[in-house]
Structure formats: structure tokens, C-alpha cells
From TrEMBL:
Gene name for this UniProt entry: azoR
EC number: 1.6.5.-, 1.7.1.17
Protein name: FMN dependent NADH:quinone oxidoreductase
Cofactor note: Binds 1 FMN per subunit.
Keywords assigned by UniProt, alphabetized: Flavoprotein, FMN, NAD, Oxidoreductase
Occurrences of domain Flavodoxin-like fold (ranges): 2-195
Protein task: Also exhibits azoreductase activity. Catalyzes the reductive cleavage of the azo bond in aromatic azo compounds to the corresponding amines. Quinone reductase that provides resistance to thiol-specific stress caused by electrophilic quinones.
């Protein structure tokens, strides 16, 4: 049985967020195929994730097992204990909502999700897998505009830093481009999400 962490980072509600429509379809198919897996949903806006404070920085070198229930360290332990990650975050201003970066600052903790060695940093989440599901107003997967895309690239890099190299992206592009059929684009992404859920 795997433990799956479903991380949601969008101020828009269910039924309004196109990103969540795609990610929820992924989850539904995954549950259907893996009924015994534990799925933990972490809605960052409902959690009220704030920016890291001095207290949080001072906690970033905990003793082994220390602070599992602490309001800051609990997120790092939760992340480390999961086997798979689904990150649903829209494309905002060439990246993703700031609350997701705040969350990342909480989970990158020495001794929990990575460690420093004489040879350099080593991720402690190796052998796990992650998928990033994103809705974008414009087309940022190819062509000249792809160079502006910094959200997915950052997520791929930071989870790689934590040891997760099996990283997949499901993107719905051009949702706000005049003349494009946004609903059809979302449906294509939903189909892709359900297909990729089969091997996740």
C-alpha cells in the first residue's frame, strides 16, 4: 500500500479551478485502480500556510524524530513519509502561487527530506514519484514562450534536490487564448491525466 500526498495550491474553489478539474480526475482514476492506497489531501489555502519565520528557520535542523507535531515541521515529516506526490498548481505570473513556494520552504528540512554530506546535498526522498498538474492561460510548453515557464522547471528541480527524479507534468495550455476551445483543452488534459494515473 502506498501513501499518496495530494498537494493543492489554488485559491480558486473546486468546480471553478481548471487545474483542479484535471487533478481531481487523476485522483479519481488512481483511487479506482488503487483502492487500498492512502490518499492525503493537503489544500494549502485551507491550511493557511504562511511564510517561513525566524522560528521556522531555527527549527530547520531538528534532532531525529523531533517536532513531528510542530505546526512547521509536521509538513516536512508528512512529505518524507509519503511515497507519491500529486501537485496541483496553476501557472501564475510565469510560476505558481506563492503559497506553494512557502510550503516548499517548510518541507525542505535538513535531516528530514535531505541531508548535507562531504560530497554535497543528498535527497532523502529517493525512489518516489511526483506529478505536477497545471493549467496555463497561454502556451508555455513549446516555442519561444517556453523560456518564460519557471514554475514546472522549479518544481522538477526542487523535488529532484529531495531525491525524486521520477517527475511527470500534465499541462493544459492556452486556456485563455482568444479563439481556443478551453473546454476541449481541459478535456484532453483530463484524458491524459486518467491515462497517466494508470501507471503512477
Amino acid at each position: 500500500m502506498s501513501k499518496v500526498l495530494y498537494i493543492k495550491a489554488n485559491a480558486k474553489k473546486e468546480g471553478v479551478s481548471r487545474t483542479f478539474r484535471i487533478s481531481d480526475s487523476f485522483i479519481e482514476k488512481y483511487k479506482e485502480l488503487n483502492p487500498n492506497d492512502e490518499i492525503i489531501t493537503l489544500d494549502l489555502y485551507k491550511e493557511g500556510i504562511g511564510f517561513l519565520t525566524e522560528e521556522g528557520i531555527n527549527l530547520h535542523r531538528p534532532n531525529p524524530g523531533e517536532g513531528k507535531d510542530h505546526p512547521i515541521l509536521k509538513y516536512a515529516y508528512q512529505f518524507a513519509e509519503a511515497d507519491k506526490y500529486i501537485i496541483a498548481a496553476p501557472f501564475w505570473n510565469l510560476s505558481f502561487p506563492a503559497i506553494l513556494k512557502a510550503y516548499i520552504d517548510y518541507i525542505c528540512v535538513t535531516g528530514i527530506t535531505f541531508k548535507y554530506t562531504a560530497q554535497g546535498p543528498v535527497g532523502l526522498c529517493q525512489g518516489k514519484k511526483a506529478v505536477h498538474i497545471v493549467g496555463r492561460g497561454g502556451g508555455y510548453s513549446e516555442g519561444a514562450a517556453a523560456g518564460y515557464e519557471m514554475g514546472d522547471r522549479y518544481l522538477r528541480t526542487i523535488v529532484g534536490f529531495l531525491g525524486i527524479t521520477d517527475f511527470t507534468t500534465i499541462a493544459a495550455n492556452k486556456l485563455d487564448v482568444i479563439g481556443e476551445d478551453a473546454e476541449a483543452i481541459v478535456q484532453v488534459a483530463i484524458n491524459e491525466a486518467q491515462d497517466k494515473a494508470k501507471t503512477f
